[in-house]
Write a structure and sequence with these properties.
The complex is a heterodimer of chains A (108) and B (116). Chain A has 108 residues and is mainly β. Chain A contains no helices and eleven strands. Chain A is 0% helix and 59% strand. Chain A is globular. The chains are: A mainly beta (108), B mainly beta (116).
Chain lengths: 108, 116
């Protein structure tokens, strides 16, 4: 079993829909990252969080340390949100362990 | 300011040849990471440098892989006797660092390595 599990693997949404991507992990962590990878490969860090909730624009990330679970929400989704969203956990130390990613396609 | 840069952006090499991939981190970032992403697969941790500490090499897949870092600047990832399974995008990231701290990582654009 992978240490980091994401769901769904693939997600297609209509423009404007509210989107949720989930991440569960099975190890002790010091932080959790949400990353965005666009076609062409560039990776952008969206959030780094170790507790609670963070919001940037239309993106919201939450984490429940006790349940070892995090969610990434996108409100009012747009075709430009189409990308691969990757959950990664930082083990104690600095090694990142990555989920397999969620491929999101938002249709107009 | 300038982000993380990597070179070359693309590299095609013949099986058995050695390759060197370069990463220039963001100035002032003491931590540097190398990752690999094979086609259709997730990211894998390879190696981590933090200041003058011994690097964490726990992700290197074989002894054909090695990496060096000059002080707190440039890093080079070397793959000797390349194999077709080494074909991947190699990503470098850097962050501020320090014992006990958790910092955001900034990724470079990657080097796409193709071994023929």
């Amino acid at each position: 079993k992978n240490e980091v599990e994401q769901s769904p693997q693939n997600l297609t949404a209509q423009e404007g829909e509210f989107i949720t991507i989930n991440c569960s992990y099975s190890v002790g962590i010091s932080a959790l990252h949400w990353l965005q990878q666009h076609p062409g490969g560039g990776i952008v860090s969206l959030f780094m969080l170790s507790s609670g909730k963070k919001k940037h624009g239309r993106l919201i990330a939450t984490i429940n340390i006790q349940e070892k679970h995090s969610s990434l929400h996108i409100t009012a989704s747009h075709p430009r949100d189409s990308a691969v969203y990757i959950c990664a956990v930082r083990r104690y130390g600095n090694k990142l362990v990555f989920g397999a990613g969620t491929i999101l396609r938002v249709k107009s | 300011g300038a982000g993380v840069s990597q070179s070359p952006s693309n590299k095609v090499t013949e099986k058995g040849k050695d390759v060197e991939l370069r990463c220039d981190p963001i100035s002032g970032h003491t931590a540097l990471y190398w990752y690999r992403q094979r086609l259709g697969q997730g990211l894998e941790f390879l190696i981590y440098f933090q200041g003058n500490s011994a690097p964490d090499k726990s992700g290197l897949p074989s002894d054909r892989f090695s990496a060096e870092r000059t002080g707190e600047s440039v890093s080079t990832l070397t793959i000797q006797r390349t194999q077709q399974e080494d074909s991947a995008v190699y990503l470098c990231a850097s962050s501020l660092g320090g014992a006990g701290g958790v910092y955001e990582q900034y990724f470079g654009p990657g080097t796409r390595l193709t071994v023929t």
